[in-house]
Amino acid sequence: MKLSGKVALVTGAGKRLGRAVALRLASEGADVAVHYRGSETDARDVVAKIEKLGRRAVAMKAELTSVEEIRALVQNVAHEFGRIDVLVNSAANFLPSSVISTTEEIWDASLDTNVKGPFFLAQAVAPWLRRANGVIVNFADTGGILGWPGYIAHSVSKAGMVMLTKTLAKALAPEVRVNAIAPGTITMPGDPPEWQQEFVKLSPLKKTGTPEDITEAVSYLVNGKFLTGHVLVVDGGRTL
After folding, report:
1. How many C-beta atoms surround the C-beta of residue 239 within 10 A?
2. Extents of the domains making up the chain
3. Which CATH architecture is the domain 7-233 placed in?
């Protein structure tokens, strides 16, 4: 298997795309540190599913707006597994905020969770990734490219993730590769039906993407040996 003997830390791995990514990396042979903040039951369910695949997994709680907790998380992963080869920064929030409705709290929450956390995680895990010639995959999204007036703070935070990816790719080369994925027009089981209808209208391909489309792209970025500083847009053409 592609990732046999490797260890991946996936943030926000209890739910939605983070969950799907954790399971995909485990299916490729990786042991996985399943990070969560409040979704302990979901995270432990992911751990159980990974163990059924024959891989090791541990659920680990951390508040990613706290640098102290980020450093403790990385130390715990390294202690538990002895190495870290892959960091996937998928944990994020998605807070509505227009020019009028954006508060200081919304602004800080968006930037702290979506940019500050991923940076300090990369900083903390960098020594381990350098030893392993490892890789970071960040989650941006199409809001960071198009700009959404109803989600100003979020869009700014995800634009920041795009630039963070590029600067980290330069700073950590040649030992560590850093790339990002920008999902768009993705629906998941349980999403409101009107989301799919709206997303179909936005996509030139006239369909929505699936979690498998995202996990396939993440796998490509993790395994692509001659790729760094790239933002892979997976949106059915929405950003055209």
Report:
1. 14
2. 7-233
3. 3-Layer(aba) Sandwich (3.40)
| Per-residue pLDDT tens over the stretch 171-216 | 999 999 999 999 988 877 877 877 778 887 888 888 888 999 999 9
- Closest of 193, 32, 184 to residue 94, by C-alpha: 184
SS3 180: strand
Query: Per DSSP, what are the bridge partners of residue 87?
Result: 9, 136
CA 84 to chain centre: 16
**pTM, to two decimals:** 0.95
- Chain centroid to Cα 20, Å, comes to 11
What does DSSP assign to residue 15?
A: S
Triad 68, 18, 110: Cα angle to 5°: 55
The residue whose two tokens read 């790339």 is 179
